[in-house]
Write a structure and sequence with these properties.
- By secondary structure, this protein is an all-alpha fold.
- It is globular.
- It starts with a helix and ends with a helix.
């Protein structure tokens, strides 16, 4: 893919993000209010109280629908509650609003693996590795994790063969 081919898609994503951030609900809570709720949600995750944290992250994403920290928290709660399809939906939205961040696709691959969709997980990991090898910003760390995951899947596949 060339940068020129991606420009209309990136522009559309940025337009969507701006429109979501401009929703009236975004102004109902002050920054201090949402940060206090986020701190509470984060603390609940640290305590492994994912169901309660999920409620707070859901609330936060209503008021700040494109805030990456809140969306990642929501996805993590879904994942820890074994709602992998919902987690992948949130990660896919994150990949839409941050199209150059390969971590979101790796998170999807991990959810696919947890769902035991090994073939789709393998394909997704391979795409992440290729994308990172093309010089994605911050891609070195994600590439190493993706390669480690690919190695584990390959070893697991050999062990069951």
């Amino acid at each position: 893919m060339t940068q020129a081919k991606n420009q209309p898609a990136v522009a559309a994503v940025l337009e969507l993000k701006d429109a979501l951030e401009a929703l009236p609900g975004s102004a109902r809570l002050s920054n201090a209010d949402v940060e206090a709720v986020y701190a509470l949600a984060h603390q609940l995750v640290a305590q492994a109280r994912y169901e309660t944290a999920f409620r707070y992250f859901s609330l936060l994403t209503l008021y700040r629908p494109t805030e990456v920290r809140y969306l990642r928290g929501l996805a993590l709660c879904h994942r820890m509650l074994e709602r992998y399809g919902e987690a992948m939906n949130v990660y896919a939205f994150l990949a839409t609003i941050e199209p150059h961040e390969p971590q979101h696709s790796l998170d999807i691959a991990e959810c696919l693996l947890l769902q035991r969709d090994l073939e789709e997980a393998r394909r997704t990991v391979e795409l992440v590795i290729r994308y990172c090898q093309q010089g994605a910003a911050g891609g070195e760390r994600v590439r190493k994790r993706a390669e480690a995951l690919a190695g584990l899947m390959a070893a697991k596949g050999e062990a069951t063969a």
